Amino acid sequence: MSANSRKKLAALAFILPGLSGFFLFYVWAVLLCGYYSFGDSLTHWRFAGLHHYKALLASPAFVLAVKNTVCFLAVGIPLLLGLSILLAFSLWYVLGKLDGGWADFLFSSYLLPMVLPAGMVQLVLPMLPGIRRLLDSDWAFAVLLLVFLWRNTGYTVVVLYADLCGMGKEMMEAARVDGANYRQCVLQICLPSMRRGLLFAAVMGAAGGMKVYRDSYFLFGEYPPEGAYILQNFLTHNYNSLNYIRLSAAGLLFVIVLSLPVALLIRRMESEV
């Protein structure tokens, strides 16, 4: 056996456990959802066409959940990217003026919210002045958005900071020598160099937006205010009520709708390489 073949076998053996789990718990699960969503029963399956999808789209709870989820991602991801860009530039500027110990502490503090357990949100956030009233009001959506930004900004900052470090400051210094101001350097040198990082951060932000349900559950319980009722709440309620066929239809629609923009972003990332 050649050395190249041995390397391929070693690589296959390395990724096989993860690949098997992906096909078993994700691909096979999605296929089962599609199968059950077109039937009229779980035990005695008969083809029911698009009946469950029509009933799903006519459900006010599903429409509300989809609307809130789309609004959450449409508002949250641009805010996440904008805030992360500002913090990444600040971090890039500040770390060059600090010694090693303080620089490491500042850098690692950005990752702290991502690793804290979801129970910390329930413990700490209601202690802040005025937050409890916001949780029970029409501002619940804003509170959920704040938690999303707190959770995901640090990781996104680290990704964009790595892009800036890879670019180096020499390009900006050369542009400044040629007469470019700081705004022109940022818009015409830094941001174009960060395109791949921004696309990757957008994909990860969409994934982080789907994980916000655990924080929502700790803050609002099983039945959040109308403004914070997202798609995961709808799926959980159908799961608890044993309505598995509607759950399968909603889950399949959820996967398809979420996968399309993510696939476009990933394709754009590949074209940028």
Helix content: over 70%
**What's the main sheet like?**
none
Radius of gyration: 23 Å
* H/I helix tally: 14
Short description:
The protein is mainly alpha-helical. The chain has helices at 3-37, 51-57, 60-95, 100-109, 112-115, 119-124, 131-135, 140-167, 170-177, 182-193, 195-210, 212-220, 231-240, 244-272.
How is this structure best described in words?
With about 270 residues, this protein is mainly α. The protein has 14 helices and no strands. α3 runs parallel beside α8. The protein is globular. The two termini are about 35 Å apart. The mean pLDDT is about 75.
Write a concise keyword list for the protein shown above.
single chain; 273 residues; mainly alpha
Task: Reconstruct the topology from this structure.
Layout: H1 3-37, H2 51-57, H3 60-95, H4 100-109, H5 112-115, H6 119-124, H7 131-135, H8 140-167, H9 170-177, H10 182-193, H11 195-210, H12 212-220, H13 231-240, H14 244-272
